[in-house]
From TrEMBL:
Organism, scientific name: Roseburia intestinalis XB6B4
MF terms in GO: DNA binding
Classification via Pfam families: HTH_3
Gene3D superfamilies: lambda repressor-like DNA-binding domains
CDD domains for this protein: HTH_XRE
Name of this chain's protein: Helix-turn-helix
PROSITE patterns recorded: HTH_CROC1
Domain HTH cro/C1-type residue range list: 20-57
Domain of life: Bacteria
Length: 60
């Protein structure tokens, strides 16, 4: 894989994970609250915020 593509992927991943946590914190809601309004499990939200699961950029 091209090194630039890999770096871009890592940059996008860092952006997605930090923006999710930052937005949730700015709204003053918990991971459980976010799960409730989005239909995404709390575990998945935790995994995204901790970079254990990276959603497809198609859905980001």
């Amino acid at each position: 894989m091209d090194m630039n593509i890999e770096m871009d992927k890592n940059t996008a991943t860092d952006s997605i994970t930090s923006r999710l946590a930052d937005a949730r914190n700015d709204l003053g809601i918990t991971q459980k609250d976010l799960a409730s309004v989005t239909g995404i499990s709390v575990k998945t939200i935790i995994n995204i915020e901790t970079k254990q699961h990276i959603p497809s950029l198609l859905y980001a």
